[in-house]
Structures are given as structure tokens and as C-alpha cells.
């Protein structure tokens, strides 16, 4: 059996050894040798597919893949015998186990009892893994017979007893866990993100699926891959191309029931009522749960009599706790709700409407009414629609944006064609965007557009459409849509037109389109400017004599932000600072989320990191409090970039990780690209080359599709900074040069200045300092603006790197003095490091030791492990011990580096080491470079000789 052989066993016994060997997108196996995981999830979540991908990702050794045979579920030890039979069968790839008592030790005909079963299983696994790690995948382990499940569970709780074996089991996550598997660490498969769902559809169709149809399928599947593919296969070729309308509903009762393996058929009438009423109660619940009390009262009303108030839900389907109930599986809930039929659903909602108050009660009442042409002309339905829309629009009514969206959409269904219906849909679309449901918003906006409303309604619809595209779509399209909205709204709603103008500028900014940004901002020049206080100019960029004066309204905030951005792009830095300062100072906790996000953006433009952190944190708190899921990703994006600018990379990485999850949940791929870029930048100082490459790949993929020049430039900068931290200045200079030098290839105008210090350092260390002079002078202008607190010190550091020896000393000292006021461990440590390196090369060893030691402490404090390794190497070259280790001393290495060194000493190649340690070859290469630098060796032969000498030398007490 080779290192990439995968054996699959299915019933009847068929062994396949033709598994593909390509490594999937997930580069690391989810379990290592000596570990076990129980993979769970709801029906259709892709447990089997996950095992396939895990098997391909496990390159350290062979993989045995077993699928349960339901027909043998009552035969004692049938599952275990099937697994043991795989090891008993000799083949060309794997020798058979040694015989025992004249018979094969793993003969499936041997009688088995619990102790002997455990011993046989562990013996087989130890034998199979004797030459290297082994992965065992058992799909649908819950279908094994109880005796086999028990043996498998005991192994899962103590996998190390079987040797170098990794164990992956799958079992449904929508039913109570089998007690045999208790104690095995779970690994629950979450629903696919919208981006992952779209990628799966593109993979299945070769990218030929109509974009609108794809988005409809993604929204309907709600992240369930089996449902997604079933929906895809249910459509005709014309529907797939978008030439024919899609069926409604897309997922009907028959399809949903088939996916969950048939809804439970042995339910009593009472259980049917319980399940339907519960499914109706949680239909639009934010957390998928509902209070027990109103459901119990609704049941009593629905089937009559006191006994009906008893709530005994089937435990395999519903979970009851803390006064609330929830379904174990969203897919099962949808199937139960769909198969009840319209009459049953309306009856359940009618019963719930009598128990609920406020907006939920009105909404249940509305769902109990038919939504058809006849209902739309009914006076009672119209009155209900009016009451529903009024309650949903009332900010005093406690409700999440998702619930408000459902109420407004239902009000539109109960309203006849006309302006009122369009207004309800427009308001519903706005709430859908706040709730992080962009696809739902776009479908509602399509209905508004198709209804041919008046010009203002069309303009507001385009404004919302542009806002959706700005977070998840080509930004050029977003800009054009927002400019259209501005033109439609200019005469009817000046405040909304101003919002569209600033949104178009945001889109051009994201694309790196300076002329487009100026054009969009100039669109606002024609608006009426507020009167300037006495003694100030009234033109664009003018501000109050008191820059801290509060702005009168949200419109004033947008106007000042537009002025500030325009002045900044026109290099009128004083005017820009005054306007942007007013935006920041006007923000306060409790403001609208959008106002706080504007303040955070303005503060970042000025380099006011304290103001940016405060505004973004307030926006994050407000978004969570108000249930505005769409604002979570952007708020965390501003926090991540703020901490990156402050040099707090660990905190930036934390914000970006959370922000990436929020962006995926809200369907915001553009926001996700920025979070990937932020994580790449944070990882670039951590020395995590694999993480840098992974996040850069994701950021660039989205950026190329949607024209995100800013995110793409940040990602490229992360790659260059990783090169620089890894001691490859020439590669870093080659990568950064086109980004920072004038010309068509220059990076985003708001990013290239931040990357200049890296380029100058890379060019100087690579011996190309002469090419960096012109950009340093441009950087000086940026430093004078004050938008980056680190820039003045960085500027002096850059000048020191390029200066003659008689001037460099003083420049380094001045740079360090400025770092004292600017703060930031990472940037100060970089200056200390470069100064120490410069001193060492001039044989000023004592001074060099002090600077390099300070740099090492600073790098370690902020988690910059790659730079810390360089500082240690410089200290060793200076004749100084870094952390007490001597050059050539293996104790200076990390445990992972020691493992790699011993493999090298044994003659293993990098690829063989990667397979043995379940890491990538790039990771092995990265660690070996660090090892060579730390030990002062130049070849694998020298390294092997050093290891041999170390092992022969006795340790001193």
C-alpha cells in the first residue's frame, strides 16, 4: 500500500484502490495520527464528501475507507469484521498480518467478544501503521451493529492505543448521539457559505449556470450541499440558462422529504400537530428557536381540549430546554413544514397568531391569510397589510431586521399592485440588506423595478442595489448603479442622492479608480452647501471654525465626509483633515451604525487610530444589539485594519477571523476579500507562510472577479512582507517595486504609501538602494500629512537605509526618538533591527548587541516570529547568544524543527518529511531555512554531521 492509496469498502465487500490522489483545496487533514474525530451534521451536509476530501488530504500514509452496510446492522460484530477483513486480505500494497495459532490473526471467522474484538482491532491497526501513519475513515458509523459501534467508540476515546492511526467517523448530527460514541471529540460540519455554494455549482456545471439562477439556488439551499445539487438536477436546460422561469417553490415537499430519507411515518396525530406548529413558530426566528409557552397554547387551540396543551415532541426531531424548542435539523423542519400543505400551515399560523402579540402575532396572522389576487383586493387583507407594514417600520417595536423584512414582504403580498406594494417591497429589501440577506434584497428590488413605480422609488431601489453590489459584486457595476440612483434621486430626495454619491465614491475607491472617485465626489458639488460661519470660506472643504462642533444630522455627516475625501484626493490635506475630523467628532455611541462606520473610515483616513478603534467598536456593538448582520463584517474590517496600523497583529488577526465568518454569513464576498488580506498581513509577520499564501489566494481570487484593487494590493504587500521577514529581500523588492513606483502598475493609491518602507528596506538589503530614492520623496509628502502615526519615524528609517555612513547613525537615532511618541512595537523593533545590523557591519559590536537585543524583545512581544529569527541570527553573527543557545546547538530549535532535522539526518527528502509530518513541503522548506540560519550550517550533509556529533556527545549535568 503506497502513501496515497485509499481503500474503500462498501457492501457487498468491494475494495477499490483507484481513489484520486490530488490534494483538495483543504490542504491539511482534519485529524492526525493518534487522534479521532466524530464528524457530524444534518442530512445532506456532505459528511461522505468530507471524508473523501480528508482522505485525499492525508498524504502521510495509506487510508482505509469503510462504509457501513445497513443490512448487517443487527449482526453482532458485522461492521468490525468488515473492517478487519480489509487488513486480512493480502495485496500488493500492504503485507498481510502475521499468523496466530496456525490461522490468520485477523480471520473474520474468528469468534469475537468485546475484549478480543478490541485486541484484534488494535493489533490490526498497529500492524498496518508500523511503517507510517494510517487514516481510517468509517462513514455512517451509526449504522454499524451495537457491538461494533462499542468497539469503535472505545478506540475513538483512546486512539493512541492503536499506534500511529487517525480515526474519522461520521454520524448524523440531527439525532441524539449514540452513547457508544460519547467522548469522541466532535467535528460538526457547518452549512456552506454562499461563496462555497456558488463554487460548488460552478464546479458541477462548468460555470455555465446563469448567474441569477445560481444565486436563487444558493439562497434556497441555505448552505446544504445535497439540497443544492438536488435543486440543480431538478431544473430543465432552459431554466439552467435563465431562459425559462424557475418553479415556485424551488424546494417542494417531495424534494425535501426525499433528501431527509422520508419524514417519520410512525408519528401520531398529536406529534404531527406538535411538529407543524413548532415549524411554523420558528419560520423566521433569528436563532431557529421558539418559546414553548405560546406553542403549547397554540396546540391547545389547534386541536382543542386541555390534554392538547401537553407538549411531548419526538426527541429525535425536537430539542426542548430553557423554555424554548428548536429542531435538530433545519432541513427536516423545512420538509415537515412543506409536506403539511397550505391548509395545515395556515391553521398552525392562525393558532399561533392568537397567542403571540406585537409584530410576531401580526405576521402569523398574515401568514394565515391567502396571498393571491383575490386577497389583495380584500379590505381586511389590505388593513392587515397596512398594520403589518406600520409595525415593521416602527423603530420602537422590538424586532430584528430579518423579522421586519418578512413582515414587510408579506405586507406587499397582501397589497394590490401599485405604489404601496412597491414601497413595502423597497422597505423589505432594506431590512434584508441589514439582516445580511443580499439575495433576498435583490429579488425584492427586482420586483420593485418590474412594477414600474415612480422615479423616486426607482432611485431608492437602485441605491439599495448599489449598496448590495458594493459588498458583494463588481465594484464598477456598483458605482454605475449608484450614480444612476443619484441622477434619479437628485430632484426628489437630495439626502438619498448624497448617500448615492458617496457610495459611488466608495466603489471607485475600492477599484483604485482615482478619476472615477473624483468624478463621483464632484457630483455632489451642485448640492446646496450649508452657510459657512463668519470668517471661513464657503467652498468645498470649508468647515466650521470649531472643528469639534457637532454636525446637525446624518446628512451633514455624509456631506463632510464627501468634502474630506475630495480634499484628500486633491491633496488639500488641511481641508481634508478639518472635514474628516468633524465626521469623527460627531460620532457617539448610540448613533446609527452607518454613521459610526463613516466615522471609523474617516478616522483611518486621518491616521487617528484611537478614533477609528472607538467608532468601529461602537458600530460593532450597535450592529450586534440591533441585529444588523450586514454591518458586522465592515465594522470588524475597520477594527482589523486599525490594529494592523497600530502594529497589534494578533488582535488584527482575531478581528479578521471573526469578520471573515460574518462576511460569509452575510453573503459579502468583497468584505471577505479584505478580511483575507488582513489575515495575510498579520500572518506575514508571524512567519506562517502557508497561511499567507492561503489568504492571499482567496483575496486575489475575489479581487480579480470583482475589481477590488485595494484588497489585491494589500494581499500583494503581504506576500512581499512575508518574503522580507523570511530573509528574501530581493524577492520582496521585485514584488513591491511595481506597486510603489509611479506608472500604470502602481498599487492602490491608499495602500502603496503604506508599503513604501517595506520596499525601501528590501531594496537596501538587496543592494538596490538607488532604485528607492524617488519613492522616498513621495513618501515624505505623505508623512507630512500625518495620516499615519508611524510614517515620520519610518521616513527617517528609510533615509538612514539610503544615507552615507556619516549620516545614517543620526537618522536611526532620530527615528527611534519618533518611535517613542508614535508607539507600536513592530515598527520600532524593525528600526532597532536595521540599526543593529548596520552597527554590526561596522564592527560596533557592543552597540549592535544592544540594538539587536531590543529588536528581538520587540519582535517577540508582538508575535513577529519571522523577524525574531532574523534578529537571533544577527545576534549569533555578532557573537552573542540569543536566549542562551550557542551556534550549532540543537537546543535552539523548536520541537517541529527538531523533528525535521532528524528526518534530514536520516536521509529523507523534503517531500518524504512532509508526508511523515502531515505538513506541506513549503512548510518543511521554510523550517529548514530557519534551521540552517540558527545552526550556522550550509548543507544537509553538514546538518546530518552536526546531528550525529550531538548525539554522540554526552549531555553535561
From TrEMBL:
Name the UniProt record assigns to this protein: HTH luxR-type domain-containing protein
GO molecular function: DNA binding
Positions with biased composition (Low complexity): 532-554
Keywords associated with the record: DNA-binding
One GO BP: regulation of DNA-templated transcription
PROSITE patterns membership: HTH_LUXR_2
The keyword DNA-binding is annotated on this UniProt entry: yes
UniProt xrefs under CDD domains: LuxR_C_like
Entry keyword annotation includes Ribonucleoprotein: no
Stretches for region Disordered: 523-554
PANTHER family: TRANSCRIPTIONAL REGULATORY PROTEIN DESR, TWO-COMPONENT RESPONSE REGULATOR
HTH luxR-type domain residues: 886-951
A Pfam cross-reference name: GerE
InterPro entries: P-loop_NTPase (IPR027417), Sig_transdc_resp-reg_C-effctor (IPR016032), Tscrpt_reg_LuxR_C (IPR000792), WalR-like (IPR039420), WH-like_DNA-bd_sf (IPR036388)
SMART domains referenced in this protein's UniProt entry, alphabetically: HTH_LUXR
Organism (species): Streptomyces longwoodensis
Domain of life of the native organism: Bacteria
Amino acid at each position: 500500500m503506497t502513501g496515497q492509496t485509499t481503500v474503500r469498502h462498501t457492501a457487498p465487500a468491494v475494495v477499490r484502490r483507484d481513489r484520486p490522489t490530488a490534494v483538495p483545496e483543504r490542504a491539511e487533514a482534519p485529524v492526525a495520527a493518534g487522534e479521532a474525530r466524530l464528524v457530524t451534521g444534518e442530512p445532506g451536509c456532505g459528511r461522505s464528501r468530507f471524508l473523501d476530501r480528508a482522505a485525499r488530504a492525508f498524504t502521510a500514509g495509506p487510508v482505509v475507507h469503510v462504509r457501513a452496510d445497513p443490512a448487517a446492522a443487527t449482526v453482532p460484530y458485522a461492521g468490525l469484521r468488515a473492517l478487519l477483513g480489509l487488513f486480512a486480505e493480502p495485496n500488493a500494497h500492504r503485507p498481510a498480518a502475521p499468523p496466530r495459532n496456525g490461522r490468520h490473526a485477523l480471520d473474520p471467522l474468528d469468534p469475537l467478544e468485546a475484549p478480543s474484538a478490541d485486541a484484534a482491532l488494535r493489533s490490526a491497526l498497529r500492524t498496518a501503521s508500523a511503517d507510517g501513519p494510517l487514516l481510517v475513515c468509517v462513514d455512517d458509523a451509526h449504522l454499524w451493529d451495537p457491538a461494533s459501534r462499542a468497539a469503535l467508540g472505545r478506540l475513538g476515546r483512546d486512539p493512541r492505543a492503536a499506534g500511529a492511526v487517525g480515526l474519522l467517523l461520521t454520524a448524523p448530527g440531527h439525532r441524539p448521539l449514540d452513547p457508544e460514541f460519547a467522548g469522541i471529540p466532535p467535528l460538526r460540519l457547518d452549512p456552506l457559505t454562499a461563496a462555497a455554494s456558488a463554487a460548488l455549482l460552478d464546479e458541477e456545471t462548468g460555470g455555465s449556470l446563469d448567474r441569477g439562477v445560481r444565486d436563487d439556488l444558493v439562497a434556497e439551499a441555505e448552505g446544504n450541499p445535497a439540497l443544492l445539487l438536488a435543486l440543480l438536477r431538478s431544473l430543465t436546460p432552459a431554466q439552467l440558462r435563465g431562459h425559462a422561469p424557475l418553479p415556485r417553490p424551488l424546494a417542494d415537499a417531495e424534494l425535501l422529504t426525499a433528501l431527509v430519507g422520508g419524514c417519520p411515518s410512525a408519528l401520531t396525530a398529536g406529534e404531527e400537530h406538535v411538529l407543524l406548529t413548532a415549524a411554523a413558530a420558528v419560520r423566521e426566528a433569528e436563532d431557529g428557536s421558539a418559546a414553548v409557552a405560546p406553542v403549547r397554547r397554540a396546540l391547545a387551540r389547534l386541536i382543542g381540549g386541555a390534554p392538547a396543551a401537553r407538549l411531548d415532541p419526538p426527541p429525535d426531531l425536537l430539542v426542548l430546554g430553557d423554555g424554548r424548542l428548536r429542531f435538530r435539523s433545519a432541513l427536516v423542519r423545512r420538509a415537515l413544514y412543506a409536506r403539511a400543505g397550505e391548509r395545515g400551515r395556515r391553521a398552525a399560523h392562525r393558532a399561533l397568531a392568537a397567542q403571540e402579540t406585537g409584530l410576531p402575532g401580526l405576521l402569523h396572522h398574515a401568514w394565515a391569510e391567502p396571498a393571491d389576487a383575490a386577497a389583495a383586493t380584500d379590505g381586511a387583507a389590505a388593513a392587515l397589510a397596512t398594520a403589518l407594514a406600520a409595525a415593521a417600520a416602527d423603530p420602537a417595536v422590538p424586532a430584528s431586521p430579518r423579522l421586519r423584512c418578512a413582515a414587510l414582504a408579506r405586507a406587499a403580498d397582501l397589497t394590490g399592485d401599485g405604489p404601496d406594494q412597491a414601497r413595502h417591497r423597497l422597505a423589505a429589501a432594506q431590512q434584508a440588506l441589514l439582516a445580511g440577506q443580499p439575495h433576498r434584497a435583490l429579488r425584492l428590488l427586482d420586483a420593485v423595478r418590474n412594477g414600474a413605480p415612480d422615479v423616486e422609488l426607482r432611485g431608492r431601489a437602485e441605491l439599495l442595489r448599489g449598496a448590495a453590489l458594493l459588498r458583494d459584486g463588481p465594484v464598477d457595476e456598483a458605482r454605475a448603479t449608484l450614480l444612476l440612483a443619484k441622477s434619479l434621486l437628485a430632484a426628489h430626495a437630495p439626502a438619498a442622492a448624497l448617500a448615492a454619491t458617496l457610495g459611488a465614491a466608495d466603489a471607485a475607491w475600492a477599484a483604485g479608480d482615482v478619476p472615477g472617485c473624483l468624478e463621483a465626489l464632484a457630483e455632489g458639488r451642485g448640492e446646496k452647501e450649508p452657510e459657512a460661519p463668519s470668517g471661513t470660506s464657503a467652498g468645498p472643504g470649508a468647515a466650521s471654525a470649531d472643528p469639534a462642533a457637532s454636525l446637525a444630522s446624518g446628512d451633514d455627516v455624509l456631506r463632510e465626509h464627501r468634502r474630506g475625501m475630495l480634499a484628500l484626493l486633491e491633496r488639500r490635506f488641511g481641508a481634508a483633515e478639518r472635514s474628516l475630523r468633524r465626521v469623527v467628532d460627531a460620532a457617539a455611541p448610540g448613533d446609527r451604525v452607518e454613521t459610526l462606520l463613516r466615522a471609523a473610515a474617516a478616522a483611518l483616513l486621518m491616521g487617528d487610530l484611537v478614533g477609528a478603534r472607538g467608532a468601529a467598536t461602537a458600530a460593532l456593538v450597535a450592529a450586534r444589539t440591533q441585529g444588523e448582520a450586514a454591518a458586522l463584517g465592515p465594522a470588524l474590517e475597520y477594527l482589523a485594519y486599525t490594529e494592523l496600523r497600530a502594529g497589534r497583529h494578533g488582535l488584527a488577526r482575531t478581528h479578521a477571523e471573526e469578520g471573515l465568518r460574518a462576511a460569509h454569513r452575510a453573503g459579502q464576498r468583497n468584505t471577505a476579500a479584505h478580511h483575507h488580506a488582513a489575515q495575510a498581513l498579520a500572518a506575514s509577520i508571524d512567519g506562517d507562510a502557508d497561511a499567507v499564501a492561503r489568504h492571499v489566494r482567496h483575496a486575489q481570487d475575489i479581487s480579480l472577479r470583482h475589481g477590488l484593487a485595494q484588497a489585491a494590493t494589500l494581499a500583494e504587500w503581504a506576500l512581499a512582507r512575508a518574503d522580507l521577514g523570511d530573509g528574501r529581500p530581493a524577492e520582496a523588492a521585485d514584488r513591491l517595486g511595481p506597486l510603489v513606483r509611479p506608472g500604470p502598475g502602481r498599487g492602490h493609491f491608499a495602500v502603496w504609501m503604506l508599503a513604501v518602507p517595506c520596499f525601501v528596506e528590501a531594496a537596501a538589503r538587496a543592494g538596490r538602494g538607488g532604485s528607492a530614492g524617488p519613492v522616498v520623496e513621495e513618501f515624505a509628502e505623505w508623512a507630512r500629512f500625518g495620516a499615519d502615526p508611524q510614517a515620520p519615524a519610518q521616513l527617517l528609517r528609510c533615509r538612514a537605509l539610503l544615507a552615507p555612513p556619516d549620516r545614517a547613525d543620526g537618522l536611526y537615532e532620530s527615528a527611534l526618538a519618533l518611535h517613542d511618541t508614535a508607539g507600536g512595537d513592530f515598527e520600532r523593533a524593525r528600526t532597532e533591527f536595521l540599526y543593529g545590523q548596520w552597527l554590526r557591519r561596522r564592527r560596533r559590536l557592543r552597540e549592535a548587541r544592544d540594538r539587536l537585543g531590543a529588536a528581538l524583545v520587540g519582535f517577540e512581544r508582538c508575535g513577529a516570529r519571522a523577524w525574531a529569527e532574523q534578529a537571533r541570527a544577527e545576534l549569533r553573527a555578532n557573537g552573542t547568544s540569543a536566549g542562551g543557545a550557542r551556534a550549532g546547538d540543537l537546543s535552539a530549535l523548536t520541537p517541529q524543527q527538531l523533528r525535521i532535522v532528524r528526518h534530514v539526518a536520516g536521509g529523507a527528502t523534503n517531500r518524504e518529511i512532509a508526508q511523515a509530518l502531515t505538513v506541506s513541503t513549503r512548510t518543511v522548506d521554510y523550517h529548514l531555512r530557519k534551521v540552517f540560519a540558527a545552526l550556522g550550517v550550509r548543507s544537509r550533509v553538514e546538518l546530518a554531521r552536526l546531528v550525529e556529533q550531538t548525539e554522540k556527545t554526552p549531555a553535561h549535568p
